[in-house]
Amino acid sequence: MLYLLPFLIMIGIKGVKRILKSIIKLRYYTLFMTIFFFSSINVGYTINWHQANGNETQTRFSHEHILPPLVPKWTNRESSNQFPVIDGHTIYVTSTNPLKLQAIELTSGKVKWEYTLGGSKQLPPLARDGIIYVGNATHYMAIQDLNTHPKVLWSVPLVTGTVPSTVFRDTIYVSTGIGNYTAIDRRTGARKWGNFEPKSSHPVAIGEGRLYGASDSDVFAYVDNGKTYTTVWTRSFWTTGKVTQPIYKNGMVYVGFNQDYYALNARTGNVVWRTRLPGNITEASAIGKNFLFLNIANKTVIAIHPSNGNIVWRTPLDILGAPLVVNDTVYLASNKGLYGLSTQNGTQTFTWHRSAHHSRYALAAAKDFIIYTRQDHMIGFLPHNKNIRVMIDGKEQTFNRIPKIVSGRTLVPMRALFEAFDANVSWNGATRTVTAKTEDTTVELTIDKTEAYVNGKLIILDVPATIIDSTTYVPIRFISESLEKTVTWDGKERIVDISSVKEYPSQKLIVNGTVVRDDIKVTNYHGTPTIHADPIFQYLGGGVQYHLGIGQIIATVPNNSIVFDYSKRELVPNLYTTTVDGKDIFIKYLHVVNNQIPGKEEFHLDLTFFQDAFNWTVQWDREQGIVNIKYN
């Protein structure tokens, strides 16, 4: 209610008194409720519903990371529907003959339970937190999923239509049999108001506290005042045709009408831009992170820039269903199969052909699955390389939950990753902070915040740690590199390869105060710094000779030769020994880079070798990038 303060100051004390008197007389009730509604809503509030029509903004966009190519995982020929709904690990659909609600396992496609709805007409369901809202032409009801069977929570008489409903907070906007909308309390089924005019032929979209609907030739916005509604604006096109499903995003309402596509100011209904299309728009459109996506009648898919209406790309494709955007891929269905296009340029990234003669196709996305429905069956698709694999020093890791890709970054279950790195992990529930400690590194992350700390130094993350399905996920590259690991990503095979070898390629080598090299390589190998030794032996007036065929490396210095046995190259601590001036020297790590390329070999030794063999003082300043050697 603090948002009312500027309004009250503006109208003054006398104005407040007038309004209070009017409220008592119920003359300005609608005005007061409108102001109260706007003062109390959270404009950024959005439920990311995994259903064919997306969330309440009707964007048909999913944040899931389901990368093509896809392969069919299962087929269910007992169920079909134009509007599948996914909640948790369950798909909910209504089917006919007889009219029934089905709960289907997402991972297997098997029917968990069925509930006979009765009636003669199906209203596509909504689902949230295990409760399904569905109609059967004469009643609207809430049904709880108890895993093995359903339970009806409430049922109210209502002549329902066939247009999908929309939910916002605790209100469901249900289409009626005559094309109007009724507002229902989703907790009790009590009707808040009904018979909304004008008639809407599409689910309403919701944004900034307003509801946006469309009839055959009109687009309109109205405000839900709790017990009634108030029309804010109407945009009429005055010609024969049909307006497509409204979409709301970032203060704009997007609709298509015949061969034109419009962006309307969500507050006023004024036209911001209009784009002439090469054909009539035939289905609901979708909007992703960057572009709008339209399917038009001349068998073309088009991407439009939402800020100016410019056509970005067009791809010839015969599509019968509305597009579904899943992160960076726009998925489309037709009687010839399922397709995936790049959202950036429209190139085809995935094709699954299966000819059929149906008129209804629908898509939904959740938890690694794309659900593709036809009139007579449903298919669940998974990415061909579904799981991201994580390798640490050549060993594949096993996680209790699969890694995820979020905004281009790989996230993995926190505890399993830290345990693989032998790090001690602690959790502060009050601050939602994760702390991981190794011998010389402390990493701190806070859930859903991009600020992280490594040994007290602030680091800004691209993607924060987050909680998904009750599991804490952390960005694997940031954690690994903070703990001195090297990370590489194989996008084709979807493998994260982590090595305990961390390279520092451009270090400065100083010997007795003289800069010898400014590009020497230091490698932190399993916590032990090793250095490219060839330049050091060369500076001493010697060099390195490679006899890898017989497993030997000979390093020469004035008046001495040191033989290193390279035949035992299972890089195990203290496995190597050599003799220097009659003294046995243990070597922690010895390895050769480019050992298959003659003339390009690099001989790496741990820094402590030079201390033990020659009594030198060797210091490596990692922050400054300097290796400092001193000897007499």
Q: Gist?
A:
InterPro entries: Cu_amine_oxidase-like_N, Mao_N_sf, PQQ_b-propeller_rpt, PQQ_rpt_dom, Quinoprotein_ADH-like_sf, WD40/YVTN_repeat-like_dom_sf. By secondary structure, this protein is mainly beta.
Overview of this protein structure:
InterPro entries: Cu_amine_oxidase-like_N, Mao_N_sf, PQQ_b-propeller_rpt, PQQ_rpt_dom, Quinoprotein_ADH-like_sf, WD40/YVTN_repeat-like_dom_sf. Residues 182-374 form the Pyrrolo-quinoline quinone repeat domain. This protein has 632 residues and is mainly beta. The chain folds into 4 domains: 2-40, no CATH class; 55-383, YVTN repeat-like/Quinoprotein amine dehydrogenase (Methylamine Dehydrogenase, Chain H, 7 Propeller), CATH 2.130.10; 389-499, Copper amine oxidase-like, N-terminal domain (Copper Amine Oxidase, Chain A, domain 1), CATH 3.30.457; 502-630, no CATH class. The strands form 14 sheets. It has a 7-stranded mixed sheet with strand order 56-57-50-49-48-59-58. Strands 1-4-5-6-7 form a 5-stranded antiparallel sheet, with no helix packed on it. Strand 49 (514-525) and strand 50 (528-532) form a beta hairpin. It is elongated and about 100 Å long.
